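### Sample
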Amino acid sequence: MNKVLVIGSGGREHALAWRMSLSTTVAQTFVAPGNAGTELEPLLTNVDLDVSDFSAVISFCQQNQITLVVVGPEQPLVDGMVDALSAAGIACFGPNQQAAQLEGSKAFAKDFLSRHNIPTAAYGEFTEVAPAIEFLSSQDMPIVIKADGLAAGKGVVIAETQPEAEDTVRDMLADNAFGEAGSRIIIEEFLQGEEASYIVIADGKNFIPMATSQDHKARDNGDLGPNTGGMGAYSPAPVVTPAIDQQVAEQVIQATLDGMAKDGMPFTGFLYAGLMIDSQGQAKVLEFNVRFGDPETQPIMTRLRSNLDELCLAAINGSLAKAHCLWDERYALGVVMAEEGYPMAYEKGHAIQGLGLVNEDIKVFHAGTRQSDGQVFTHGGRVLCVCALDDSLGEAQKKAYQAVKRISWGSEYYRTDIGFKAIR
């Protein structure tokens, strides 16, 4: 039986750890540092570890006979956690530091995509204001401007006008709006179409697709308002037809794994391709993540029926070709409940009411929460993700929102149209 440690404190980690704890081959699941939701789960144990201190993580794993570590967030992957734990003989699931550049640097990813002829938007790369603004003068609006490094899902601006685009360039390059992450920027064409998230588990050569999903990045109904880390998601995503599925599997995922292996940095872990699918059914890569998406993880894990620990260990051991995945056929839909003001300034510390009033068939995953004296408080911008399963997406949506209405803390904010494209 496996003993698993999940690294992270968000909704993604709550969902991964919860699914791990239900595995028939897992004896114990720890989460470091976790949140109030993982603390309240009967089968999970929170661990107060500084996850940026790799030697402390290694010591914990050795003392507790951990047989699998799963890294949830991107920062430890980009910082080399997999390299450090693997060197200590600990099975750690995720890409090594070199391969994690696919997310750690937008410039690295765009260069990789163009070098290996993987479909993506046309782009330019800049470290100075003047050439960036000159490049903008020859481009159509709207246009997408991205900070090169990690910016917690917020380093992407869609500029509607030339002045807005120029201001964004100055903000990032001259005024340091995203710190070190924005010292280099990518300016790329704005792709029209419908977004989808295509997430796989990879062992360097082979991959198994996770269930398809669609995230809602914009803060407000109708996909309006500023970009966020994601306001809700559902799975499966009907926009990924069998033909698109095949195209993405061959031209994006397999081409990426082959390209990374050819470049001497084989990719093991969750590989997430954020896609834009145009009206002709052609998919282009918007971005790579080198870990599971949030909030897509929550509905996808609600549907997964296979032992997640076995899949991760098969990937680490390079034996994914023999593995397969079982899924609940029903639709899953998750609504993110955020703090008013997110993704900009928001308050913390509001007491959350109504968590005990939610039906048993609803799963509430915690993200920005903490517990004190038996009461759960808000502790981040995205606070909860409320997930429901049903035979139709419309019914799953209805069930999720019925549950959302039972939970409150006085300054909660959520979209009321998650899943609208597929339902429409």
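The chain is about 30% helix and 30% strand. This sample (Phosphoribosylamine--glycine ligase) is used throughout the tutorial notebook.
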